[in-house]
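In practice, a research group might receive sequence data for several interacting partners and want a quick structural hypothesis before committing to experiments. The following worked case mirrors that situation: the sequences arrive first, and a predicted assembly follows.
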Amino acid sequence: MHDLLSPYQHRDSTIHRLPAGAKLAGAVAFVFSVVLLPRGTWGPLAAGFAILVAVAALSRVPASRLAGRLLWVEPFALGVALLAVFQPGGPGIFAFVLARATLCLFAMVLLSATTRFTDLLRVLWRIRLPVILVTTLALMHRYLFLLVEEMSRMLRARRSRTFLPGRAAAWRAGAAVAAGLFVRSTERAERIYGAMCARGWKT
Amino acid sequence: MNAVEVRGLNYRYGDGTAALRDVSFTVAEGERVALIGPNGAGKSTLLLHLNGLLPDPPAAAPAVTVLGTPVAGPNLGAVRAQVGLLFQDPDDQLFCPTVWEDVAFGPQQMGKAGMALEVRVAAALGRVGLAGFGDRQPHHLSRGEKRRVCLAGVLACDARVLALDEPTSDLDPRARRELKEFLRGLPVTQIIATHDLELVVEVCPRAILLDAGAKVAEGPTAELLNDEALMLAHGLERPHILRHSRPH
Amino acid sequence: MHIPDGFLDTKTAIATGALAAAGIAVALADVRRTVPPRRVPLIGLAAAFVFAAQMLNFPVAGGTSGHLIGGVLAAVLLGPGAAVVVITAVLILQCLMFADGGLTALGANIFNMGIVAPGIGYGAYRLLCRAAGESLRARLFATAFAAWVSTVAAAIACAGELALSGTVAWGVAFPAMAGVHVLIGLGEALITALVVAAVARTRPDLVAAEAGRERSYGGMVAYGLLISVGLAVFVGPFACGWPDGLEKVAATLGFEHRAAGKSLVAAPLPDYAVPGIPSRVLSTVIAGAAGTLVAFVLAFLLARFLTPTRGPRARSA
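A structural hypothesis for the assembly, expressed as tokens:
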């Protein structure tokens, strides 16, 4: 599910070509205005949906992918929602809040589908987010995919040597893999520090 | 002036085991020398001494001199600009979000900026055949491409000595051929630690054999690698390329 | 526990945003002071690790499975400042790249999962280690309990924020969030302890290193203050039974957060109480204390199970 949209970040479209800063600012402005809409104002909400549908069309991200992502409602939101239904007028209020949340989700999903994280990072750097935070975000994003792959390999290797099925074995495997991944990550972090020093990094 | 001079280099790991024992050799400028030996011989450890990553903290009386500069405390910055170290795992070295930023990293540490920086990065990427790759993200690159970006990164620093740690490991035959050709055409001092004995024969006229941290032999590649007894005694073997053709 | 957009009202979003920013500032100062430069890349790698580790499946029953949250794991292995930065980075990535958690709720999500959880977890961990000793078994016990407490604390803060926003009445939010997370916290405790035990098996130095670090009391006081302020603002009024007073304050200050005139989710039983005990607050406190005691005992038993005193796996470091 998570990688659903990253293949689309490298496509080309009017939206993709917009600068990352503009897209981020646009998404922020959109989400903030939608969140401020008073309950029951369905008109502006519908207008918001129309705008995003137009943006989505321009971005040429497949509609089925977008819909799939939007329909996967956060269980948390659903849980809160279900509780609201049991009161007079509840369903109406609840429907609005859920629709509003979905509209905001739509905007963020479009942002992530058309913008590369590395471009967003540059924007965050320019607006003077603290160095350690930006560096952490950059390194995290860089090594994310590598660690996830390493993790799958370790899980596969572990499963190849697990002959008794069952939850206990799965929990032990998960913990062992997580621990192994952590240890490897600390060792890799040391080597990265060495590589940074090797090219002149001054501390 | 020699490119690299190593005199009586000793190194122990944290747990006390000797990693390098009294190693001495020199490398002339423009020379291409191979460091060969079995696993655990200390080849990688030796390379890490060439730009002062080891010993950590730096020794008072360094055993290594690069281009006339002893590899010690105040000189480390200058040495690291001169010695381009290519790590065994390109993922350790390619830590920036995009290719351009990674190649620019070294020059930026040296104070380059603006148009001068752009030109440098573009030139380095061009030399390794990756022009236009600037905007790519490292995790989308192939193994061979990652290695080439790392190479571009050290070339962008105008390194005069290249130290490569297993540069052809896990490269497919085509990438390996391309790297070989590239190294042969690069007029820079090269010290290559490798298991790839065929690479050694084709790229390095001279070789140094290490085993268990000590220098066992050194000499012209053909002579060393043709000595079957010596090769087998130190966990290696005579490469096929020498068995089936006349040594040059 | 990622709150989506539109579930928090303006004042709550602003308040949590401010608290989150302050918490991050404290954490960054702590990191700058106590983490040597050579360990800074580790914070980035740890963030990638937490993100990856959150994908691991720990099957529970039927088709459901539990997942690691990682706040206390990061705090135990890297220290509280680094843990705050790590979880914050993961939450920012999830918000911007996966639309997991609302943009306007980012402050609240960071405060709950990135500051309250690691902060309270680390505090509990340190306190218990001081009381129980520095052996591996003591550390595992402290880790497990800390992970449970941190999960429940974050959930309570979240409930408070939802109630203060008028989205869900406290009488429903608190039992629902706290109740569910008392159970989720058990999973987190178990997973976190298992992972720390596994790390200690191969690299005991990584687990012990944290304990030997310079303790920045100033930092801990700052976190404690922030978390207390947050809990006081979001939970206090409800715990003390003052929701009406708070509404009057809100009305006076002009916060029109009740556009529809009532909560999104009204409490079905306004006078919810444990049978036999008249006071709502007292019954809540008793239930909470009982739950905490159970978690305490379970953590103790888990630590014993993971560190047998006989046999080849026995260790006392």
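Before designing any experiment, note the following. The interface with chain A takes residues 48, 51, 53, 77, 80-81, 85, 87, 89, 91-93, 95-98, 105-106, 109-110, 137-139, 153-154, 157 of chain B (CB under 8 Å). The longest strand of chain B covers residues 2-12.
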